[in-house]
């Protein structure tokens, strides 16, 4: 699997946020997007995930040399980010079932059980997400992003709201993920940059 960004430019009106961002990342490697607050990290992640169109430039996903169509990209990616909302009125299990149905996933209960255990959410499956703390919600986002074993995992602000134990669990997962798949993180944290084989700086 390969993710290629070709001369990505993004403007909001006259405001130029991204100027000519290009890179390539392959399975078995990782990339970090870094830059000051407001420099365009989240904008770039959204463009890479096909959630926002670039003003100019291209995002290409290739699998065994074949280009994946835009409409199919979601099957290959998992995304964790502050703007990714869980359904607050639904329980954790209902959120998980919703994501599973969207991805046509079957027989996922054992995998979810292990991940709920790992993220210390076991026993809280039937609680509405609105009763979860922000750190618990962040943990649940990781579970929803990872349940279909995505080839590319995007994490915008990996540590967001997590305690030390949560960060360690996430780090183990990210280290494991980038061994054979693609990891893209957006971060301002110097420690997070150590996870990356390549660093892209956005902004000035
Ligand atoms: N939909 C939008 N319309 C207009 N301007 C936007 C829009 N989205 C983002 N921007 C602007 O683009 C710039 C980059 O925003 P972005 O959220 O990508 O930054 P960031 O690097 O992720 O910031 P932070 O580190 O604070 O999360 C900001 O100046 C922001 O105000």
From TrEMBL:
Record-linked InterPro entries: AAA+_ATPase, ABC_transporter-like_ATP-bd, ABC_Transporter_VariousFunc, P-loop_NTPase
Entry's Gene Ontology molecular function annotations: ATP binding; ATP hydrolysis activity
Domain ABC transporter: 3-204
One Pfam entry name: ABC_tran
Keywords: ATP-binding, Nucleotide-binding, Transport
Keyword Nucleotide-binding appears in the UniProt entry: yes
Gene3D superfamilies (UniProt xref): P-loop containing nucleotide triphosphate hydrolases
Protein name per the record: ABC transporter related protein
Biological source species: Caldithrix abyssi DSM 13497
């Amino acid at each position: 699997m390969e993710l290629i960004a070709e001369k990505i430019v993004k403007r909001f009106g006259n405001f130029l946020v991204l100027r000519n961002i290009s890179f390539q990342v392959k399975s078995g490697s990782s990339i970090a997007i870094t830059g000051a607050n407001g420099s365009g990290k989240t904008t770039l992640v959204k463009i890479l995930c096909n959630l926002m169109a670039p003003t100019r430039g291209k995002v290409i996903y290739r699998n065994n040399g074949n280009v994946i169509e835009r409409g199919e990209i979601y099957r290959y990616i998992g995304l964790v980010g502050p703007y990714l909302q869980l359904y607050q009125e639904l329980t954790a299990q209902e959120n998980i079932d919703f994501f599973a149905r969207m991805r046509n996933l079957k027989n996922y209960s054992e995998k979810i059980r292990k991940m709920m255990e790992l993220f210390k959410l076991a026993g809280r499956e039937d609680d509405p997400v609105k009763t979860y703390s922000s750190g618990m919600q962040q943990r649940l986002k990781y579970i929803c992003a990872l349940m279909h074993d995505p080839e590319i995992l995007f994490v915008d602000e990996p540590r967001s709201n997590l305690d030390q134990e949560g960060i360690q669990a996430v780090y183990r997962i990210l280290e494991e993920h980038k061994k054979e798949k693609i990891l893209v993180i957006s971060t301002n944290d110097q420690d997070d940059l150590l996870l990356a084989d390549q660093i892209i700086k956005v902004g000035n």
